Amino acid sequence: MSNLNNENVPAPAVAPSDFIRDIVAAHVAENRYPRIHTRFPPEPNGYLHIGHAKSICLNFGIAREFGGICNLRMDDTNPTKEDIEYVDSIQADVNWLIGDWAEDRLGLKPLGKTPETKLVNEKPDFQMAPIFGTSEVERKNSDAKFEPFYASDYFDQIYEYAVALIKKGKAFVCDMTPDQTDEYRRTGKASPFRDRSVEENLDLFTRMKNGEFQDGSRVLRAKISVDAPNIWLRDPLLYRIKHAEHHHTGAKWCIYPMYDFAHCLSDYIEGITHSICTLEFEVHRPLYDWILENLDLPRPLPHQYEFARLALGYTVMSKRKLMQLVDENLVTGWDDPRMPTISGIRRRGVTAAALRAFAYNIGITKYNGLTDVSVLEFAIREDLNKRALRRLAVLRPLKVVITNYPEGQVEEVKATNNPEAPETGWRKVPFSRELFIEQDDFQETPPPKFFRLKPGGEVRLKYAYIIKCEEIIKNAAGNIIELRCTADLESKMGGATAGRKIKGTIHWVSAQHAVDAEVRLYDRLFTVPEPDADGDFKTHLNPHSLEVITAKCEPAMLEAVPSERYQFERLAYFALDLDAKPGKLVFNRTITLKDAWAKEAQKK
RNA sequence: UGCCCGAUGGUGUAACGGUAGCACAGCAGACUCUGAAUCUGUUUGUCUAGGUUCAAAUCCUAGUCGGGCAACCA
């Protein structure tokens, strides 16, 4: 797969510039940190999607451009929603996306390693340093095993920090019900438990940890303010009780830290310098800072920066909605090629390089826009045009008999593998008396400007002869089932009349040599640009988002491999699907070629 | 409703007080043994109103519109 990432595809000419990179560049210029350190912290509660790809490209891109590191971290503080399946898929997707590009910037840790306690400026400090700078291949060949970081690996340390806040009188155990807590926070009233003694808080928090209390009966809250304008500063929750097994820590804990408490501390423990997240966390930033600033931490503190998440036309992006599509079998799985998930996009045949180019092209801002799918489609086509091997295949066959071509004769014509990459050479394609052409390439009563095959008209068969349609044969129902044509037998490449100017050139396959392939034609999943703008997004599902047909391919397709990309000439780009087996070709249509004729024909 | 954030062609972005540029999309043309690719040309824009300044997309004030947050989710 590695050759798919860079070969033949130019890197973006200039490194992108945006407000976050500007900030990082300024910090580098003033030597604020010994090294730039970002992180990509997904919660393992679903598969990664193209919005995450934007974040991955940002965080790893910065690490790459500024000589830094980007940690992969599972933000796993809620055991009831998370699962090991997602941990595995996240790793696979990240490795695929950054492979050959920022792989050497990926921060991982030795398997099973937990934070070390060190003395910094005479203060105890928890640290979790990454290993990095090894490629995936090197890691696989090494005896040592590596894994991503897990917020759950810091539960001991985060607990210690909670105790420290309690001891400073900056956190308290609250016994109100969830509803009461909501009510009090909304109205700016102080919890009746706010002024418990340090001793009582310590005792209660220990007993929370020891499992003496029911879920929901008590929480640990920071003591910041009862009526701050920013709700997140109104004595926010730090810990809640959940008697649940955790996919990574097992049954060790029955209290789990909230996102706000765990995230900033995880960043600190890992030595993150720039904690980049999406806009909805903007209002959490004061809390992020408050926690870190109230703990007497000896090392430089990380800072949070926010950017706008990706919204893409004709799809949905929330994990909840994507999971609904999966659970209700509206798609075949998280990696269904119609899904905006990284695994779906990959299965569809899009390369990592194309996805990265897309991420670069859309930029990073704080403006919540809706990116047109054409931007994604352009990145995919541009990438595939340069790398895809050209092949002849007919999706909807129409039989053609060349009446002046000898029965039983077979010849092989030379066909270019990829005009964009001449070094890929050429192959032989068999030609014979009976062929298949595309049904769309013939019209009995053609509209104006139709320069394909028509009665009495001529067209060039790509790499072969110019043919003329002499006769149409129909069945009893009146449908065209066969065309009788004559060929200009001197018009093949190098022939006497090869230079004749014929407006149309069409693709074909020799009937007796054609191989069948299952072809899955995908279209957008939804019929409207913003499926979740109103009501139920599922009412906007495109009923024609998948069509499965059997295509007739030139015999070279028998040698198709998953790592390659193919262009069925004049039609679309295709990639071999996971479901393909020896003797059973299955192709996914990644994306169609641009079709100027379809546009022209629509103008009527 | 409170708090926070944002607003540049159809879409996504750049311009960091000094010529509003790029990409996608669109349109027109050239070329073409892929109606692809490539090449050329081109339509379209600074939310509004005040202010500061020789000069404002940029700074200030107000408004308008849009988004986010107000989970014992992240």
Beta-strand percent range: 15-25%
- Class of secondary structure makeup: alpha/beta
Our count of helices gives 15
The overall pLDDT average reads: 94
Description:
The chain is of the alpha/beta class and 604 residues long. The radius of gyration is 31 Å and the shape is elongated. The strands form 8 sheets. The protein has a 7-stranded mixed β-sheet, with helices on one face. The chain has a 7-stranded mixed β-sheet with strand order 24-21-22-23-17-20-25, with no helix packed on it. Helices cover 26% and strands 24% of the residues. Helix 3 crosses helix 13, helix 9 packs across helix 10 and helix 13 crosses helix 14. It binds one RNA strand of 74 nucleotides through helix 7, strand 11, helix 9, helix 14 and strand 24.
Structure keywords:
604 residues, alpha/beta, seven-stranded mixed beta sheet, 15 helices, disordered N terminus, RNA-binding
Walk me through the topology.
Elements: H1 3-6, H2 19-29, E1 37-40, H3 50-65, E2 69-74, H4 84-98, E3 106-107, E4 109-110, E5 116-120, E6 123-127, H5 136-141, E7 146-147, E8 149-150, H6 155-167, E9 171-174, H7 178-187, H8 198-209, E10 219-222, E11 237-241, E12 255-257, H9 259-270, E13 274-278, H10 285-293, E14 303-307, H11 319-327, H12 342-348, H13 352-362, H14 373-387, E15 389-391, E16 393-394, E17 397-402, E18 410-416, E19 426-432, E20 434-438, E21 458-461, E22 466-474, E23 480-488, E24 505-506, E25 508-510, E26 515-522, E27 546-553, E28 566-568, E29 572-576, E30 586-592, H15 596-602
Parallel strand pairs: 1-2, 2-3, 2-8, 13-14, 15-28, 17-23, 21-24, 26-30
Antiparallel strand pairs: 4-7, 5-6, 9-10, 10-11, 11-12, 16-27, 17-20, 18-19, 20-25, 21-22, 22-23, 26-27, 28-29, 29-30
Helix pairs in contact: 3-13, 9-10, 13-14
The protein binds one RNA strand of 74 nucleotides through helix 7, strand 11, helix 9, helix 14 and strand 24.
